[in-house]
Amino acid sequence: MTPQQAKAYDLWSSFENTVLYSKRYFVTHPLLDTLKGYLKHNVKIIAEGDVYFRARIIDESARKDYMMVICEKEDGNYKRYVSKANKFKGLSKEASYVPPNNRMIGEGRANPKFIKYLYVAENPTTAIFEVRPLLSDRINLSEIQLKRDLTIADLTYNFDAEPKNMSEQEWLLFYIHRAFSTPTNNPDAYIPSQIIAASIEAWGYDGIRYNSSLHHGGVNLTIFNPNNCEPISSREMIMEGFKISARTAGQNPIDNKLLGIRDNECHLIDTRDFNDTVLPVSKNERKKHVK
Question: Most buried of 116, 133, 207, 273 (most Cβ within 10 A)?
Answer without folding.
Answer: 207
